[in-house]
# Entry
Amino acid sequence: MLRGSTERLPLSSEDSSLAERIFRESVVWKKYLDHLISLYCTTPLEKLDEDVLLSLRIGAVQLSKMRIPSHAAVSATVEAHSRRKTRGLVNAVLRKISVHEDTGDLPLHIEYSHPRNLVDKWTRTMGAEAAGRLLRWNNSVPELGGYAFSRFPGDSSPGRYLENYRRIPRRGRVKPPSGFYIQDESAAIVARGMRELPGEKVLEIG
# Structure
């Protein structure tokens, strides 16, 4: 939807970037957001209409994780339900979330929105403190960059490992120059290593 026809969803570069960030954070923090919503929603989440729950997640993530001003996050989300009976529910829940403060005693799998069995395994293996650091890193916004086959894009900085890898800032919609391929540096390292295996078969998993 965000990368489709501009006639279907005419967004500026800045609005498109914000929409993609909201989508990304809503997915990353889904388990935490559902916990937060359930604190203030009297209707069980599984009984809410899907679009109502999605709207609540979108509003909640802006308030709790993106620090968007409450008047903007609440009003924009409520406006989407302006002609529906669900307007009052969405408004009431988000206004309560806007003043919510975590008590600091949430289980790690809720606090960082990860599968419980994975968090339990990491905690057993490396301890709660190290597991917490890994969870925070895993939820952080990844760097944006790519491999330069020809010229480097302007306003870029060197990667960590590859000479031709460049990191670029996240500002609006990215329009890479010709010869610059957007990808994570770890993927670029694998591709670079393939050059050392001419004629060999390689299985890519993932």
